[in-house]
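Slide 14.
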Amino acid sequence: MALDCFLGKWREETKDGFDDLAEAIGLPGDKKEFYKSAKTEISYTKDGELWTINVGYTGVPNGRVFKFKLGEPYDSANLDGSPMKSVITADGSKFLEKHTGTALNQAQMDIERWVEGDTMILKCHCKGVTMISHYKRV
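Slide 15: predicted structure.
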């Protein structure tokens, strides 16, 4: 399947536009500084149609685990742990994510992820602001 390119572990290398995105979603200043310097680690596994995402930060124990099936809503969380409702679909070899929640001031956050070689690229758009992150396969 085209999405199997996501399987494995990824570590964030760069994030451009984070300050603007953090401001747009109202992330408090103390959390903003932590997440700005933190490197996100994401791992993807799959069992049949059920995907599992394990999201954490380099050097910080106890990340979050989310399970989903393409096109089916599931409960997730924002950067600071605030609850969100999410749905992930596929467009060829891309994941397309839609997230809503009170932490986003009821706005919708759209995320597009794709893989180029050993790099996963994330394009996040919310409230007129875009952030682009690059992850390397670990």
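Speaker note: The chain has a mean pLDDT of 91.
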